[in-house]
Design brief:
Elements (H helix, E strand, L loop, with lengths): L1 E5 L9 H10 L6 E7 L5 E6 L2 E6 L2 H16 L5 E5 L5 E7 L8 H14 L3 E5 L21 H13 L3 E5 L30 H15 L6 E3 L12 H6 L4 H18 L3 E5 L2 H4 L27 E5 L6 H13 L5 E6 L9 H17 L4 E6 L12 H14 L6 H4 L2 H5 L3 H7 L19 H7 L8 H4 L4 H17 L5 H20 L2 H11 L2 H33 L5 H26 L7 H4 L22 H5 L5
Parallel strand pairs: 1-2, 2-4, 6-7, 6-13, 7-8, 9-10, 10-11, 11-12, 12-13
Antiparallel strand pairs: 3-4, 3-5
Length: about 625
């Protein structure tokens, strides 16, 4: 067991509990002595010699990262070496999505915090749209797995022991459709997802939000969201007040919220996309030629910290351009990158690594000081947290080590910092790389794992795309590789959930990816023998593999998340099973002569965009279950 001690002094005040949590999380086979020494000079320095190591640090995040670096070096054999890393940015944080059905349990968040500390992070935001307590509004977060005040306080206490600041992150204008679905909220609505700006009851509600969530934590900072308020002023606001320019409504709203935060001793932050969307056709965001008119940034009161978020670009020059546009408006932005984790059951770490390299380089070049990494869980929050940790580590390594994030000495840190060898989570995070370079195509990374899994067998909305190549063989090879990695050892129990889910996903896709193509081909050819064989495949092997994936996914969700929200995944898997039973029923009727046609298989196959194919169709980014499952009304 690794022995950790300070050089004749006690642990820094308040970090004793965090050190115990970190020590308990280190691999049991680690041996040796680790000496910790505080110094005034910023940065972390680790000296490894034989079975021991020394860590020099100036602040808690450096100390915990030093423990992670030293432990990784000792685990790799303990060859003599010295590691020097500068303090990368004033703030290095993670924002974790807790609003798209999958709400991590307190235990899960504590596990994330320990790994974050070992990576060198010092800030965590839990993105909670309606999943925090709001006294007086029983409908707020109801059936959604909202945190209690006691749970948030427990998370804050645990984070504090690791030197990590827990900053509340809520929405104070838009992205509130789950709350606004309740009839009792009708008077508070502008539209179905935007609050009625300027209304006294709405301002009172927002003040209650701010007071409630900030009262659970130590931090005096708060993220108010305020992004993507599409249709602002065009719903009930228009009926009550007539047309007002959205920027005027937003200006008044921001000033009112700034006053609320000042009243309660809080420093607010917000997303900064609004000032760009107002000046780009069709309310877009990433126009490479945009030039903001002088004074655009003045709409945002100086009380706010403004975040430039960009999870997509692989070109460093684009980030520099947008940072410069902020600077021209007198805004020195915080920057938010993203783990490409919102695309299905597993993230795309190939894309994550590329966007990380470009964005961090641009932020360094422009002298930004606060960096965040977002872990979004769009359209149901399907993915478990394990593989995301490697994306978080890649980001931290890039911030601390610059261009050396992919070097062997950085890769070796994965075992300690994520709970799995680098190649294990990388294999999960490259499942969407079914063609070389696919992950780097387009602004949004293609996510075939998702639409090939959830598309309908008879409708074949993505069959044209599936005909590009022998993807069944690709998924078979990926499944074999994941099975070998899962059996190889070296993974903590929590890490195995992600590997096993990726394995079961690939086993389903191996059978399903071309199943619709084979059904239509056999039907068009009148090949009843082939249809009979496919009927048995659907009824047997296909359904068995879907069931295995369903159960693996359900067990992973139960391990990491609160139960609320899983009902949506049950609906999805129920769809796969019910439609498989219908396919068998329809094929039986056709093969027995009870039906002369299978109308769905007679339909011409279009691309997923609705065009007649003129050649191989590109693999798209397509991230909606309902639009993937059917073109009918859901």
């Amino acid at each position: 067991m690794l022995r950790i001690a300070f050089d004749g002094t006690a642990a820094p005040d308040g970090l004793e509990s965090g050190l115990e949590a970190v020590r308990a999380a280190l691999p049991a086979e680690l041996e040796g002595r680790l000496v910790l020494r505080r110094r005034d000079e910023p940065g972390v320095r680790v000296t490894v010699a034989g079975d021991g190591a020394e860590v020099l640090f100036s602040r808690p995040a450096e100390m915990f990262r030093g423990i992670g670096l030293a432990s990784s070096a000792l685990l790799a054999g303990g060859a003599p070496e010295t590691i020097r890393q500068d303090r990368p940015f004033r703030t290095l944080g993670v924002m974790y999505d807790c609003s798209r059905n999958s709400v991590p349990t307190v235990r899960t968040v504590q596990g994330l915090l320990v790994k974050m500390a070992l990576m060198g992070y010092d800030t965590l935001m839990l993105y909670t749209e309606d999943t925090y307590p709001l006294p007086g509004h029983p409908e707020f977060g109801h059936y959604r797995g909202r945190y209690t005040a006691a749970e948030l306080t427990a998370i804050d206490d645990f984070a504090h022991g690791l030197g990590i600041e827990l900053i509340p992150c809520i929405q104070a204008l838009a992205h509130l459709e789950r709350f606004l679905r309740w009839n009792v909220t009708d008077p508070l609505q502008d539209t179905s997802h935007v609050l009625l700006a300027g209304d006294p009851a709405v301002l009172s509600l927002i003040e209650d939000m701010i007071v409630s969530v900030s009262g659970c934590v130590r931090s005096r900072r708060i993220h108010l969201g305020l992004d993507e308020a599409h249709g602002l002023g065009l719903g009930r606001y228009l009926s009550k007040h007539g047309y007002t320019k959205p920027e005027e409504i937003m200006r008044e709203h921001l000033e009112a919220l700034a006053a609320l935060c000042t009243r309660h001793g809080l420093r607010p932050m917000m997303w900064g996309d609004m000032i760009f969307r107002m000046n780009i056709r069709d309310s877009g965001y990433y126009d490479p030629d945009v030039v903001l008119p002088e004074g655009t940034g003045a709409i945002i009161p100086k009380d706010y910290d403004v975040i430039y978020w960009d999870y997509y670009h692989t070109d460093e020059a684009f980030y520099r351009k947008y940072i410069d546009e902020h600077l021209r408006q007198g805004i020195r932005p915080l920057f938010a990158a993203g783990v490409c984790s919102w695309i299905g059951l597993v993230p795309n770490l190939v894309r994550t690594a590329a966007t990380t390299r470009a964005s961090v380089a641009a932020a360094r070049d422009r002298g930004l000081e606060e960096m965040f990494l977002c872990v979004w869980k769009d359209d149901g929050g399907e993915a478990p947290p394990g593989p995301d940790l490697l994306g978080m580590m890649i980001y931290a390594e890039t911030c601390f080590g610059g261009a050396d994030a992919g070097a062997p000495k950085s890769r070796r840190n994965a075992r300690v910092m994520t709970g799995a060898p680098y190649e294990s989570f990388w294999a999960v995070g490259s499942i969407d790389e079914i063609e070389d370079g696919l992950s780097l195509v387009g602004l949004e990374s293609p996510n075939p794992q998702r639409y090939f899994l959830w598309q309908d067998l008879l409708l074949g909305q993505f069959d044209v795309e599936a005909s590009r190549g022998d993807f069944a063989a690709v998924y078979r090879a990926k499944a074999d590789a994941l099975a070998a990695l899962a059996d190889a050892g070296g993974c903590e129990p929590d890490a195995l959930w992600g590997l096993r889910l990726g394995l079961q996903l690939c086993r389903v896709l191996e059978v399903k990816v071309d199943l619709g193509l084979r059904l239509k081909r056999a039907y068009d050819a009148g090949d009843r023998a082939a249809l009979s064989g496919l009927r048995d495949l659907v009824a047997g092997e296909y359904l068995d593999r879907v069931t295995a994936l369903h159960h693996a996914h359900r067990d992973a969700w139960s391990h990491f998340y609160k139960p609320f929200g899983w009902e949506v995944e049950d609906i999805k898997y129920g769809f796969l099973r019910a439609r498989a039973e219908t396919v068998v029923h329809r094929l039986d009727a056709y093969l027995l002569g009870e039906s002369s046609r299978i109308e769905e298989l007679e339909e011409e196959r279009l691309t997923c965009h609705g065009t007649v194919p003129s050649g191989p169709a590109a693999l798209p980014h397509y991230n909606s279950f309902t639009r993937t499952a059917t073109v009918g009304q859901f």
